[in-house]
Amino acid sequence: MTGLVAAERGLGEIALVDALPEVVVVAFAAVTHLADPWFLFGLLAIGYWFADDRFAAAPRRAGATAIAAVTCAYAATALGKAWFAVPRPAGAVGPADVPAWLPGLLSAWYEAQVLSDGFGFPSGHATGGAAAYLALALVYDRAWTARKRLLAAVGVAVAVAASRVVIEVHYLVDVLAGLAVGGGVVLGALWLAGDPRIRRSGSGGAEDGSATDGGGSEPYAATAALDPTLSFLLAAVVSVGALAVAVESGHTGEVVEAGIGIATGAGGAIGWRLVDGDEPAVPVRVAVPALAVTGGLWVGAYALSGTLAVTLAATTAAVIAVVALPALPDRLERLSAGRN
């Protein structure tokens, strides 16, 4: 909404990062990859497919809920960018100031990192990074300790947020808003999914499925209660709102992003209906060809972003395949047994 977030919203941070050594800026340009959408969804898919009960009592439910939470975060980002429609810092438009000591291939990579189009508030990388790493820390509740998981999640999320300011594609306020939105969305998505650690009873104790260890401090089976369906559907609904705002305002790029959000939320909800939630880890022999197929669909969805219907269809199919994959080995075995 015009006026609520100013186009010139810098607080002097651009002058500060201009004074940083080039090697520091290059390093932060690499750090920003930790919240690229392809990286985050790849990481989430790996956890969803391969995690076992050393990480969570119900690793498939945990992994699907993390995917749903991050999908909600990206939907909120799409809505925010279309709603506020404020530009990025001038340096994001170019030309890029590429360090002369970088070799040719890295020069092209660096230039691609420090140039960015689209709107700037909130930061999608900060939002997605905060959501993804916080969700992973919360749902995989048997890895390390709660404190170590949360410290790691906060550390990575803050590093990614800082990187967006250092490479001058966002202002400080953009990434702070992104961190806040990402964290809030995760808690909301987990609440919708039925996380008993968030849905506390009136007496202050946890509800079903949140038995603790001997010290009473760590949820032992909280993920057994998770159902990400409503969280996936929330992402689709918020993306519909983002689509309506983008269409009304004539923001073509945000129309595509909102469409992908609708497809991801709907595809996730459909895919989860095909899964029981207690399947074992996906065998590598199944995961490798599935990765090739889903990866091809994702690439096709973005490559054909000019054709919204094709993008929606490819994205929906890819997400259904990713989420439903744990059920595939058992179905194949049943089919094989039936033929024999």
TrEMBL record:
The chain crosses the membrane at residues 23-50, 62-84, 119-138, 150-167, 173-193, 230-249, 255-275, 282-302, 308-328. InterPro entries: PAP2/HPO, PAP2/HPO_sf. It holds the Pfam family PAP2. It comes from the Archaea. Residues 62-190 form the Phosphatidic acid phosphatase type 2/haloperoxidase domain. Keywords: Membrane, Transmembrane, Transmembrane helix. Gene3D superfamilies: Phosphatidic acid phosphatase type 2/haloperoxidase (1.20.144.10). This is Phosphoesterase PA-phosphatase related protein. It comes from Halorubrum saccharovorum DSM 1137. The lineage of its organism: Archaea, Methanobacteriati, Methanobacteriota, Stenosarchaea group, Halobacteria.
